[in-house]
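[job 0412] stage=fold_complex status=start
inputs:
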Amino acid sequence: MPAADFRTQVEALRPYLLRYASLQLRNREAAEDAVQETLLAALASQASFEGRSNLRTWLTGILKHKCIDAVRKASRESPLPGEDADSAAADFDALFDERDHWREHPKPWEDPDGALQQKQFLQVLEACLAGLPARTAQVFMLREHAGLETGEICEQLSINANHCWVLLYRARMALRLCLEKNWFGK
Amino acid sequence: MNLSCKRATELLSEEQDRDLSFQEWTALQAHLVICRGCRAVSGQFKFLRQALQSLVEKEK
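[job 0412] stage=fold_complex status=done
writing structure:
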């Protein structure tokens, strides 16, 4: 492929990449940096793309690693203290009685598959994600959005596996409460 | 091993991220049989994974 065509095709995917990085990093500036680095890396290595079928998949693969780098760098430079332990756990503690059983049993959600077809639902989901504490959200998005294995996340962010599972648990518990409040419980 | 609902929800989450031990898995299954609240949460956690995938799909 001529280099000019390749550049055009890569550039056309910028909005998609930016959205991906924004969801992952929750910071417009950091997302733009990651996308920029991805595009530069892609243009510099056109040869390694030749022969692969899907440009977007290839670019997303590069971007994923740029996002991990960004999260790792951010967690080194400004560790996120405090948020972890107490505040988040307290929210869930209220759901359980002194024997750690439900005070009020959760009910199944109605028509979850139908919700996925609705644009508004995905907006609510994004708003719920934006409401998660920073570190919790980072780990959850690396797991569920970027699709990394827990072991890889732990290693990249230098946290132990147990801590990783705790953060993922908090993310899921917070998201189910948020979706219940803003969508399914309505 | 009798699980509390809180512990059961932790295992339901961890099940998505690691292989549970046989003991954990059997305890969880036994709990789910008798606890409709945790059964609901089980479905909701699985749905969350699906929902995040939808978000990825939507980006395409």
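[job 0412] summary: DSSP finds eleven helices and no strands in chain A.
[job 0412] exit 0
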